[in-house]
Write a structure and sequence with these properties.
Blueprint (H helix, E strand, L loop, with lengths): L3 E2 L5 H8 L17 H15 L6 H8 L3 H4 L6 H15 L10 H18 L6 E2 L7 H11 L9 H32 L3 H15 L6 H14 L5 H27 L5
Parallel strand pairs: 1-2
């Protein structure tokens, strides 16, 4: 389960920060030398290089060359900072122009954009967004992505359902890819090397007479992919199946909404 989630801080203060609205007491106190954007950029750079656990107010302050208490005049804490980091990442995402293309190409582009986001910011894949940060970056992203499903005969609820399912699928694949890289780094072996090292033990405990289907299918998959789980294959396979499922829903919606013949 993700250890970090969005919208875990003070919602009123978070929304002020996301939309860059001045706090009521903004005019008081000494003139500030940093900016919210500078704080977010420094925190994001730390997370990209070392993971989200490395992002602390003290560490961000150190990167910016200020004392930790200085940061609290910009951001109340890490919870609000995480929302700002994720929304800034959303705002920077490239938006593919798919106007006039078939809906499969449009939806595939949305999946690829989010896959690229998680590749640039691996920490984001582990963040739960069940309560999303409703900042400008997210709203721009949502508006852009919904366009891939516009004009297909889907209801508004089904449009949101399809997009939510697609994004959840891409995030799960990204999380699996992060886990695979972490396992390779921790063991100092790629998957093929790991299986070779452990093959003698597995041969002793995995009796094909006891587990005939598991051994047969597992061997076939492992031989084909060079590992028990290939994140790239899982993503490509899953995306094709997801598009097929959307096609069935689109066809059903069009049949339901078709005018009755006279």
């Amino acid at each position: 389960m993700p250890t970090d989630r969005t919208s875990a801080g003070d919602p009123a203060r978070t929304l002020q920060l996301l939309w860059r609205e001045a706090a009521p007491d903004r005019g008081r106190g000494p003139r500030r030398g940093l900016s919210i954007d500078a704080v977010v950029e420094a925190a994001t750079a730390i997370a990209d290089a070392e993971g989200l656990d490395a992002v602390t107010m003290r560490r961000v302050a150190q990167e910016l060359g200020v004392v930790p208490m200085t940061l609290y005049t910009y951001v109340p804490g890490k919870a609000e900072l995480l929302d700002l980091m994720l929304d800034a990442a959303y705002a920077r995402m490239p938006r593919t122009d798919t106007a006039g293309q078939h809906w499969r190409q449009r939806v595939t582009a949305i999946a690829e954009e989010n896959k690229a986001l998680f590749e640039r910011h691996p920490w984001a894949a582990a963040v739960s967004t069940s309560r999303p940060p409703l900042g400008p970056g997210l709203m721009q992203k949502y508006e852009h992505e919904l366009a891939a499903f516009e004009g297909l005969g889907l209801s508004d609820i089904h449009m949101d359902d399809c997009l939510t399912y697609l994004l959840t699928f891409v995030q799960a694949c990204a999380r699996a890819a992060v886990d695979a890289r972490a396992a390779q780094h921790d063991s100092a072996m790629n998957d093929e090397q790991w299986w070779q090292v452990n093959a003698p033990l597995l041969a002793r405990v995995l009796d094909p007479d006891t587990y005939p289907t598991a051994v047969r299918v597992g061997t076939a998959a492992g031989t084909a992919h060079g590992t028990a789980h290939d994140p790239d294959h899982a993503y490509a396979f899953g995306l094709r199946r997801t598009l097929d499922a959307f096609a069935a829903l689109i066809d059903q919606s069009r049949e339901t909404n078709a005018p009755a013949s006279t």
